[in-house]
Specification:
The protein is of the alpha/beta class. It is built from 8 helices and 7 strands; from the N terminus they run αααβαβαβαβαβαββ. The protein has helices at residues 8-16, 23-35, 44-58, 72-78, 94-104, 120-127, 143-150, 179-192; strands at residues 62-66, 86-91, 113-117, 131-136, 154-163, 197-202, 208-213.
Length: 214
């Protein structure tokens, strides 16, 4: 079951009345939509602006992004970094990482974005950092694993944002089917039952879970 979660007219209206993308973000979006077979994975204008707003409200010293893709969301999140802040982003696919790095190198914050290529579950412990903001947007079957590995390193009052928590509407039926939909439903349930955090599920794009560590 794939459900059209957002009326296309409402989506277009939201874009019309949301802040515009800067030139670099427009370039990333254009490249991705024109050339990438999985272009639907791009955060896009409205979600990207929301990520920027969240980051600017938090003013994080350290951001972790799990799943770089072509770099759009990292560039959005980096806009809220403190003057001495750093964003670490991890991408499994070397080709996507190379393209993202090209875009990062065009950014005014290129020296504050640290791109890592490989398995996030292996890379994260080696970073030896504590996080103010974490964005999870990688393989769905590992969402709980990513959550559990970063939560101890998340500062109290810090935030995790998890993408695709509605998974194309496939989690909405009584019988959730499909590996990824089942994994996302399990993740949502896991977070709901976790007394260490507070959370709200936002019906933006494909669903964002905003999670705060108590």
């Amino acid at each position: 079951m794939n459900v059209e979660l957002l009326n296309p007219l409402a989506e277009a209206y939201a874009e019309q009345f949301s802040g515009t993308q800067d030139e670099l973000l427009q370039e990333v979006a254009a490249y991705t939509y024109e050339t990438h077979p999985h272009a639907h994975m791009l955060s896009g204008q409205v979600q990207g602006k929301l990520l920027t707003m969240i980051s600017r409200m938090i003013r994080p010293l350290r951001i972790l992004e799990i799943g770089t893709f072509t770099g759009y969301s990292a560039l959005c999140l980096a806009k809220g970094l403190t003057a001495d802040g750093l964003l670490y982003t991890i991408e499994l696919r070397e080709e996507d990482a190379r393209k993202a790095l090209n875009f990062f190198n065009k950014s005014a914050v290129k020296d504050r974005i640290k791109l890592q290529v490989g398995n996030a579950l292996e890379i994260i412990p080696a970073l030896n950092e504590s996080w103010d903001l974490v964005f999870i947007d990688a393989d769905k079957v590992n969402y709980i694993n990513y959550y559990e590995i970063v939560l101890p390193q998340l500062n109290r009052g810090g935030f995790i944002v998890a993408d695709n928590v509605l998974f194309h509407g496939q989690v909405l039926g009584k019988n959730v089917e499909g590996k990824n939909a089942k994994a996302i439903h399990a993740f949502n349930t896991h977070v709901k039952q976790d007394s260490r955090v507070e959370q709200v599920l936002l019906t933006v794009r494909d669903g964002l879970m905003l999670i705060m560590k108590k």
